[in-house]
Each structure stands twice: as structure tokens, then as C-alpha cells.
Prior knowledge:
Elements: H1 3-16, H2 22-26, H3 38-57, H4 59-87, H5 99-104, E1 113-119, H6 126-134, E2 143-150, H7 154-161, E3 169-174, H8 182-192, E4 197-200, E5 206-207, H9 211-221, E6 226-235, H10 242-264, E7 276-279, H11 280-285, H12 296-306, E8 310-320, H13 326-347, H14 351-358, H15 360-393, H16 396-400, H17 404-431, H18 438-441, H19 444-447
Helix pairs in contact: 3-4, 4-10, 4-15, 4-17, 10-17, 12-13, 13-15, 14-15
Amino acid sequence: MSDATGQxxxxxxxIAAIDPLELSHRRPEWSASQPMTRSxxxxxxxxxxxxxxAFVCAPLKAAQxxxxxxxxxxxxxxxxxxxxxRASLSPSAILRFSDQDIADREPREWPLFSILVPMYKEPETxxxxxxxxxxxxxxxxxxxxxxxxxxxxxxxxxxxxxxxxPAGFRVTEVPKSFPRTKPKAxxxxxxxxxxxxxxxxxxxxxxxxxxxxxxxxxxxASPEKVACVQSRLNYYNPQQNVLxxxxxxxxxxxxxxxxxxxxxLGAVIPLGGTSNHFKTKLLQDLMGWDAYxxxxxxxxxVRLGRAGYATRMLETTTWEExxxxxxxxxxxxxxxxxxxxxxxxVHMRDxxxxxxxxxxxxxxxxxxxxxxGTFSVLINPLFWCMALVWFVFRPEGVSxxxxxxxxxxxxxCLFIGNFVFxxxxxxxxxxxxxxxxxxxxxxxxxxW
Length: 448
């Protein structure tokens, strides 16, 4: 048996001893392996029964009350967006390091940095991914890169093994098991990581070359409680079609304005799916990612907050490919909404404990960010339809649903609220100097 074969067998033995579902086994209350608890199901069914009973007994009052509650949510959500965008102007909203800052600290011994790249049936991107990570301005002997591939993904395994991988790069085969998810693969990579710090990149990612050095400086300049540094994400193909234009405008607003604003407010931050840098030991202590949550990054951001840790934003960009296919975009968005629903139910299993761990302010942040985002998606179509029916037909029935104060608040939300959300996308495009996307941002409601 050759040395290479022996080393590979030894690695596979180590992998076989890893439990990638450790979180769900040791702390099932933190995992989406059980979507809803019995008490949550009872509470939800009870609430639905009360709503149905109210509509049966007093349909007009029930409808007016429901609309009043939803309108109040819209008002609060609009004011909240104002506060977050205002906070993004704070100098503490994002960590910045210039080329000179990096040069002033060299020469120095840079810490070992682990990089995880989960892939599945992407043989065409292996070569580009290796080239991109090799080109990063970080000492080659201080990069510990794992290409995480499913053991039955023969085409991508073959593509990776056909390359002469640079020093520090290795292929980690993830044994076939349920669930077949990105976080499960990353948990195996986390157990085998050698670096002091760790980051995840997707296969098509093009991170800015000095990102790893900036992440190290960010951790060294931050308090000990900072466990994660999130890079900004944006797209390198915004002009491909209408969908990529809207997608890029949305990401510009989210990563360049809203997340920095949340960081300045000290809020819980739903992490992006890539380019989040962690302290490796701390992440191992938290048992990594929930393999059953389809937005494991959002869930991890909440768990970091519950454990008393903070996330900061870093002024460096990872460039990705915006989704240009409508049906693939629908599937992606469905997965994101499902994951936010999973995350909300997981952490609301014991609301009082969540309140105690996050504190009152962060608890409210959580409700508006995670629960509120999904709530908006569910009720927006209903309110848009009612507004359309009112403007076109002016039926008496619709007007009765909106008593004076509620109608006034609803009108403010319809016009000013939607203007605010569109303006945020315009600001994001402006901040990114994407002037060509600003006209498309005016049509953001169509995208919603």
C-alpha cells in the first residue's frame, strides 16, 4: 500500500469517527431535526381555532382587528428600517482596513486560516475555485483548504483529483448519509480544520484577494466576544437579465446598508451563506451548524447571539454569480423562507429563555428580522390585492375593513413605506456605484 493510500485511509477513519449531527444529538432543542414541538403545535392550532371562531362569530370585527394588527406591524417595520439605515452611517457599522493598514503590520507571522469549500456536482468550477483561492494574498503555507465533496459525487471527485492541488489544499470526502446538506459537510470539515480561524466559500466565489488578512486584523482589533466577521457579498453578473439586476440591487442594500446597520446596533445578525469568518475553536464548541436547517447560516447567527457573542461586518467583498433563472430563483427563495421559518420556530421553543439570553432589544430584533420577514411575505399579496381592488372598483366592503386611523396608517405604509424600501435599494446601488441598476430599483415591488 502506498503512503498516499495509507494517508487517505487514515483520514477516512477519522471522518468515520466524526458525528456531523452532533448538535441535533446533544442539543436537540437547538436543531430543526424536529420542526415543531408538541407545545408549539398546540399553541398554533389554538390560535388558528380562535381566529376561525372570531371570524365566524363577528366577521367584520375580526377582519378589522386582523388588518389593524397587520397595519401596526407595517408601521413598526417601516420605522425599524429607518433606524437600521440610519445606524449604518455610524463609523462602528463596518470594520475597515486599508492596504496601508496591512502593509504597516508586515512582515509578520500570519495565523493558519482554514477554508471550507463545500461542493456538489460542480466539476466545471473546481479549477476556477482552486485558482481563485490560490491567488489570495495570504501565505500559501498558512492556508488550510478543504474541498468538501460527497463520496458518491464521482464527477466532481474526478475533476478535483485530476488537478495538481497546491500545497495546503486537500479533498475531504463526506460519507453518504442523511441529511445530504451543506451544513453536514461543513461540520465534517470543521472537525478536521487546523486553522485558528475558519471561513466558508462557495465554489463560484471570487473573494477579494486581501480578505483573509483583513479578517485577521478585524479579529485582532475587536473585543474577545466578537466570534464572527461577515464579509459583504455582491454579484459579478448584474447586467445579465432583469432578475440579476433586481437581485444585485437587493444584495447591495442588504450587505452594504442593512447588515452594517444591524452590527452598529449590536443586533443579532442573520449570517450570509458564505464568506463568514469564525474563530475555529469557538465554532467547534458551539457544535458547528445545524445539518437540518436549510438556512444554517441564519440559525448560527442567532445561536452566536444567544451564547453572548457578537458578529461584525467587514469592508471587503466576495463576488458571486447572481441567479439568472426564474424557476431556480423561486426554488432558492422558497428554501430561504423555509429556513427562516425553521429558525424562528427552533428558537421560539422557549420564548422566555430566548428573551433572557438575547435581552429585550435583541429579542425584538430577532422577531422583526426572522419572524417579521416571513410574516411580510405571507401578508403582502393580500394587502396589495385589497389596495388594487380599492383603487379600481372602490367597493364598499373593502372600505369598511379600514376604520379611519387604520386607513390613514395603511395609506402611509402603502406610499411612504414602499417608498422607503425602494429608496433603500436605490441607496445600496448608489453605495456600490451601480448607477445602471437604479432605474430597475424603482420596479422593486414587481420583484417582491
